[in-house]
Amino acid sequence: MSKVNKVVLAYSGGLDTSAIIPWLKENYDCEVIAFVADVGQGEEELVGIEEKALASGASACYIADLKEEMVKDYIYPSLKTGAVYEGKYLLGTSMARPIIAKAQVECALEVGADALCHGCTGKGNDQVRFESAYAALAPQLTVIAPWREWDLRSREALLDYLAERKIPTTATLEKIYSRDANAWHISTEGGVLENTWNQSNELCWVWTKDPEDAPNTPEEVSVLIEKGEIVAVDGKAMSPYEALVYLNKKGAEHGVGRIDIVENRLVGIKSRGCYETPGGTIMMEALRAVEQLVLDKESFEFRESIGLKASHLIYDGRWFTPLCRSLLAAADELAQDVNGEVVLKLYKGQVTAVQKRSPNSLYSEEFATFGEDEVYDHSHAGGFIRLYSLASRIRALNEQKK
Amino acid sequence: MSKVNKVVLAYSGGLDTSAIIPWLKENYDCEVIAFVADVGQGEEELVGIEEKALASGASACYIADLKEEMVKDYIYPSLKTGAVYEGKYLLGTSMARPIIAKAQVECALEVGADALCHGCTGKGNDQVRFESAYAALAPQLTVIAPWREWDLRSREALLDYLAERKIPTTATLEKIYSRDANAWHISTEGGVLENTWNQSNELCWVWTKDPEDAPNTPEEVSVLIEKGEIVAVDGKAMSPYEALVYLNKKGAEHGVGRIDIVENRLVGIKSRGCYETPGGTIMMEALRAVEQLVLDKESFEFRESIGLKASHLIYDGRWFTPLCRSLLAAADELAQDVNGEVVLKLYKGQVTAVQKRSPNSLYSEEFATFGEDEVYDHSHAGGFIRLYSLASRIRALNEQKK
Amino acid sequence: MSKVNKVVLAYSGGLDTSAIIPWLKENYDCEVIAFVADVGQGEEELVGIEEKALASGASACYIADLKEEMVKDYIYPSLKTGAVYEGKYLLGTSMARPIIAKAQVECALEVGADALCHGCTGKGNDQVRFESAYAALAPQLTVIAPWREWDLRSREALLDYLAERKIPTTATLEKIYSRDANAWHISTEGGVLENTWNQSNELCWVWTKDPEDAPNTPEEVSVLIEKGEIVAVDGKAMSPYEALVYLNKKGAEHGVGRIDIVENRLVGIKSRGCYETPGGTIMMEALRAVEQLVLDKESFEFRESIGLKASHLIYDGRWFTPLCRSLLAAADELAQDVNGEVVLKLYKGQVTAVQKRSPNSLYSEEFATFGEDEVYDHSHAGGFIRLYSLASRIRALNEQKK
Amino acid sequence: MSKVNKVVLAYSGGLDTSAIIPWLKENYDCEVIAFVADVGQGEEELVGIEEKALASGASACYIADLKEEMVKDYIYPSLKTGAVYEGKYLLGTSMARPIIAKAQVECALEVGADALCHGCTGKGNDQVRFESAYAALAPQLTVIAPWREWDLRSREALLDYLAERKIPTTATLEKIYSRDANAWHISTEGGVLENTWNQSNELCWVWTKDPEDAPNTPEEVSVLIEKGEIVAVDGKAMSPYEALVYLNKKGAEHGVGRIDIVENRLVGIKSRGCYETPGGTIMMEALRAVEQLVLDKESFEFRESIGLKASHLIYDGRWFTPLCRSLLAAADELAQDVNGEVVLKLYKGQVTAVQKRSPNSLYSEEFATFGEDEVYDHSHAGGFIRLYSLASRIRALNEQKK
């Protein structure tokens, strides 16, 4: 066990990180600083969190408001790549990890800590994401991952551990589902979901209405996009975080953004989760709609391949790498033309782009319709096809000669 | 103008190909054979089609039933790749073209024709798809594309052309929307859709109920999959075509499978269409759901990249190429493990996989949950992360030394 | 035939473009401006070129020195992507076309021309490259491609055409090989090369010594690289063009940079050529050598995939597209770490990087060797492997249960 | 420490695995079976190996001749993908590991062993390759990796360990370079190579002549290829292994197949090695030469992308995975046309394909040359280019309107 003096812990106020504070002090004989990242997980998780941290034995508690920065510098760039993990997952937890880790590292450097600690379990992705970020940003700091070290193996053990030390907690023994939330999404795992043949139930969904309970009347929202970034919604200029909050409310009301997925974790196992990303799902649909107007065929395909690659990089916690910077640069370049306006219809769990326009649109009514025009001459197609299929023709002629 | 004696025309019975028959005879002084492909476009388009062809001047009319073969040999292999064009389009028209062209070529070879003819316009994809298939399958045959040759430039001109020749037609002047259908999908273009800022209206949708008019109660269907192919639905073994027809009915009832897209055509312009693929959308969702269970992370990513590549190949009419065969072989290999059962919920335009299981599932309740197990030891993760992020660490240590 | 008043012709002084001047005047009744791009094709091709152009009937002749700009803004960015077409070809002709076209367009806009003309044949790539650049940069200008219009079908016909008009030319009837040169490379096609079973002979190689005639003693050059660009050679700071000229001389002396390739042209046919890129081959090897030191595994693979994609884009004349900009941005981002020094050995046709170092090197003698170190703990590997192969293990256990 | 009864060790006869036998017996109290794979590493390494194993304490020693199978079932399929790791490395060690592991597992199952053991170090790739194969083929067996367990940390310690136990060895203290050989290649690491700024010296190269010492006269070999596999050399039918041995001799004589590379290991560090693959380099060049004739543009690009992907999979020990099978299937499909004959010139370290022909060649003298022909009409190019550049044109027209 390394000798450390001062540890900065990514603290959530939940049962796990509450137990980690005394555990660190006892096992490492060190000072513990609680670091809380506000990434939009919700007021209820932040109220009284400083008191809670101090009561658990932290010597100080710092809270960093990262909400606006997260949407602007992590989510918007990711959206430009079109990253969707394994065809479904909008990377809600993944995108929050690097910014939390970065702010935690900055806190650690500021307070002169020599170690970093997180409360992620040993079977999950988040440990990899946190520690990959630490490695890239502060390789000199020691990393402590209690879940891979201690022998506390159940919720009950944690509660006992706190009770023995008379540390107050509001956590209860009964907690079937494990959740993670930030401004972009909330995830639910465990319980009934552990058998893939079980259907999810109402406990698996937190933010969004069940589509069956959503309004019977559709609602429209309009989104204005500049260089691949949403700059206004329903006619009102909004910051990235404001736009997300606004669209979250709209989407949730209409049951938009639910997915129930079995995914490949980075550590080699599969897990199942129910994820809700109401506003994000609307944003994604809006961006893709403008792309339909402005990206040419080869650019669209490349944007899709970037998105596929980026989805793995982001999921895998590779944010602070040259490769990720390279992909984001490629996507940002393509996004220079992604300007326009989209009207989206929300209804019973679905979001559909029903109107779209762009000053950069390559679509032209004149070109697309039946008749002749100045740009497109029907006769061009003959030559095009001939050369386009020439290798096939030569190959077939070859075969016939045999 | 090449000299030809006998032409086999891909004949639909519509206005265009009806005019093409006399036009060919007059301009090429040749015999015209009408070839009709039954790809599930619907009874109403086939009733009396032979009489119609003969009345237009064809010397013979052959009808080939390609429905089962199309689903089995073209659609199912494509589904294994996961091909979706530009993120939305299930390639309905694209997948039908190669099989029609192939059967048309076979007909031409059988009747000793020296030319092939199609009625596709000069601005579309289908001319490329037909002629690319011709080039690969019968490069020795002359290809005639009347739309790129004649000076008939409007519906009115075509009607006049037929009237002058006293050829009967049921076509009317007023036809706002252009449609194409086969067992897999129906597409609608033109009219109000020509301005991307217009919303689609009820005329743009043919097969599927408007989600708002769909039943208020969800319905479930169950699908059994073997090696990436659907072999039974709702407990009943079905052939590929039967399964599609069955799921089309279910999907259409619930408004499933509508998309409204602006896409890049192969010929360099963009066009907008409303496409309905009710059964196909269910099939696609079912396959992807089993893949979630059985494909490991790298295989899933590769399957997605194959799908992206295949979507362009298929859209672009490259079916009969070595590259397409190579992609299909790769996808088929991955599909060997895609076995399982999925329950899907249909509701108001959405299809959602709500239950899934597979004998090849890599998901394991034991591994995924919190506790220790025999396969996964929490402590492994520490070493994994260390090596996983080692290059980042070395890079960062390097930077610090500067 | 469109009506044009003033045409700017990409003029080389060769037989083809000499005939094009009078042909344009006669057939289009227009003024012809000769535009000459100096891309390092060699003094002998530029001497007296203005007089020649005027003697052929041009009203003016402009010569633009593009040498430095070509290497700096076209070749260096391409090198960062690692683009090599079909595994061999360093894109010598391809990279010169966009800059020539761009300068030609600028000339046309300046002199108020309404048309652009080039002398590329109808079976080659260059027509596509020129006209794709024109389309992107000046779509309003008419494009004239005489080789696709006139009925002059042989060298003899061209000579007769000039003789009839008493236009002097130094061209002779006997010209077996067709060549194209710029600072980066020289290509040779035709003659004995037309049969792929023939070996090339001494007429197929112009710049470089036959390796068998090259010095029996190897020579070393050292190259300094900053952010993926060569900034000094053999200890002397050099501009991009200077570095290329210097390395061309060294490489040519040692027979470096010859390839004899059958390649896929963009227009669907294959052609064979002998290409010499002496300096470029050295540059490429030098860059790749530094990349070995600084790029991590995933970045290296992505750089290779960018290079593959870029090779086609550049070959295909897609330089002035959003997609190309996107790829170049991605490559440039990765090149930020490509700093270092390489010593290369030239010998009998080969160039080999024999020494390399970089301030950004991820290679560390300490880490790479046998023993323990602070960064790498042997025991980490056990956990790494376990998780790395976990999906395989689960899959195999699964299979055994069946 | 797991309890095991009988271990099958991948035994090489070298110092490391000689020490492992007694170490296993002492530390695991188990029977040890030595398994020797003959993959063409050379007679001198196999002579007396059984005696050696028994003298070290093994209860039995099995030798499996895998030479022919390795070339046929591992190397030839890999060659079809075109896999070259990080642009240079022909995967010599990587391709041998899966077949050795597979044969070792088969041996273990046959003798009823409950554990597998290898002598790979904890910083290398081979431990991952061996154990990934074990996980896929026999997940139920325990894996022992002594280098990650014991505290013997130097050559000296190993010699002492053997001496204490009176186990004879021919190993000496002084061994600067570490080597690995099989029929395909030999690698050399360590010593002077540990500093990337050092040039390699004569001790770094074992099989091949220094190009400077190679014959001054070039030599030609001819290779016959069927479906991507070499079936005859210099006019004589040869099995895969025979062809490799024959070409190794030719190549080595001319100094062909040397690379000196810094590569990214799978475990996150970089290492430098000198690799010699004389015959393999000739084989690779021969295959690529036929591909130039037979693969169309898109197929060639896809083959290259498969090769890139396969190079990582193979390097990373992913042979026995669905993804690897999928890639090999894709490559094999493309290889169906790779038939032909190539003459290659060997000279002073270089191998160059100087003549090539194929019954499937898409190259045609008629099409490639200047004049008109039946297949290619110059005028087709005009239409082709127009549509090919249409999106660029529309985009530019758009920009001008702003």
From TrEMBL, chains A, B, C, D:
Main location: cytoplasm
Catalytic activity: L-citrulline + L-aspartate + ATP = 2-(N(omega)-L-arginino)succinate + AMP + diphosphate + H(+)
A Pfam cross-reference name: Arginosuc_syn_C
Residues the entry annotates as binding ATP: A10, Y11, S12, G13, G14, L15, D16, T17, S18, A37, G119
Pathway noted in the entry: Amino-acid biosynthesis; L-arginine biosynthesis; L-arginine from L-ornithine and carbamoyl phosphate: step 2/3
Domain called Arginosuccinate synthase-like N-terminal: residue spans: 6-168
SUPFAM superfamilies in UniProt: Adenine nucleotide alpha hydrolases-like (SSF52402), Argininosuccinate synthetase, C-terminal domain (SSF69864)
EC class of the enzyme, as a word: ligase
Record GO terms (molecular function): argininosuccinate synthase activity
EC number: 6.3.4.5
Residues bound to L-aspartate: T121, N125, D126
Localization per record: Cytoplasm
Entry keyword set: Amino-acid biosynthesis, Arginine biosynthesis, ATP-binding, Cytoplasm, Ligase, Nucleotide-binding
Arginosuccinate synthase C-terminal domain: residues covered: 177-394
Binding site for L-citrulline: Y89, S94, N125, R129, S178, S187, E263, Y275
Similarity-based family: Belongs to the argininosuccinate synthase family. Type 1 subfamily.
Quaternary structure and interacting proteins, as annotated: Homotetramer.
Protein name: Argininosuccinate synthase
Gene: argG
